[in-house]
């Protein structure tokens, strides 16, 4: 039986590349349902999701394993966990919702590993969270099948897809996946179905030359798509790689903003490129402070309730209202 969750389409009678699905009685089921490596509080700004329920407390839930094998993965330990790894927690969906509620969260975010390899457990949690009126979203490498993308579109309010490169050669060599076109296809599809933001982790000398071309591609999908150029601090097989040049990437972010106005560059303390400006009149609309890695917080919010610029009335993409308490 073929697994139809991601485009690697494993024949489960032979093997499961991620190790997370198996065939049982003619149905594809999860090998380790409701097993998680991470349960912690986060904010949309840290995901990063800059145009989505600013400052709302979310419970970030991470599984283990992945369908990719990025040479720089910062969570490689979790990606390589064996089935008997002791630090995996089994928690019922009801118990997880209870924990989230007790910690003051009103939303779930699936991150850390690739949500596609835990999708059935994630969907059950999404169902319970939506029944409480919460929001639900996920980060993903975007290598899911069209059928899985459809399930995500039906059950998640927002997603952040990692567009690691425009080139299949890069995907094969650095990401361990064969075809960049799959990710581009899913970005086009998901941009029409839910609130989408895109992140591109920059590996110095590997994909930093693609920034303007990537901005053009994303502007062709949606000229108001929020895009995060992410200062990657590579680990795993690329731990010795030079870190991205912050000044050069700030310069390129400025250029990209002329093509795709909601382009950001963060993941370093004091980033000057993580505020939202009105593309029409230049007004500062949302101020953020990057105080640590992946640590953006929103410090000022000036959009009107209908998500327009208070100065010129330009509509700004935004899902939900900020939590200002
Ligand atoms: S989700 Fe896992 S089992 Fe399914 S096709 Fe992808 S790698 Fe194979
Ligand atoms: S897709 Fe993400 S979690 Fe998976 S190997 Fe790559 S960086 Fe790690």
Molecular structure report:
There is one protein chain. With 325 residues, the protein is of the alpha/beta class. The protein has one domain (33-301): TIM Barrel. Helices cover 25% and strands 22% of the residues. The protein has eight helices and 15 strands. Strands 4-5-7-8-9-10-11-12 form an eight-stranded mixed beta sheet. Strands 13-14-15 form a three-stranded antiparallel beta sheet, with no helix packed on it. The longest helix has 14 residues, at 180-193. The relative contact order is 0.13. Bound molecules: iron/sulfur cluster (2 copies).
Briefly, what is this?
The chain is an alpha/beta fold. It has eight helices and 15 strands.
Q: State the CATH class.
A: Alpha Beta
Task: List the strand order in the largest sheet.
Answer: 4-5-7-8-9-10-11-12
Count of runs of 4 or more consecutive helical residues: 8
Task: Quote the distance from N terminus to C terminus.
Answer: 51 Å
If classified by CATH, what would the architecture be? Answer: Alpha-Beta Barrel
**Major sheet attributes:** 8 strands, mixed
Q: Mean pLDDT, as a whole number?
A: 94
| Bound ligands, each once | iron/sulfur cluster
* Count of strand segments: 15
Structural class designation: alpha/beta
How much beta, percentage-wise?
A: 15-25%
CATH topology: TIM Barrel
List low-pLDDT spans: none
Q: What letter string, H or E per element, gives the SSE order?
A: EEEEEHEHEHEHEHHEHEHEEEE
Tell me, briefly, the overall form. globular
CATH-defined superfamily: Aldolase class I
Computed Rg: 19 Å
Helix content range of the residues, please? 25-40%
Count of structural domains? 1
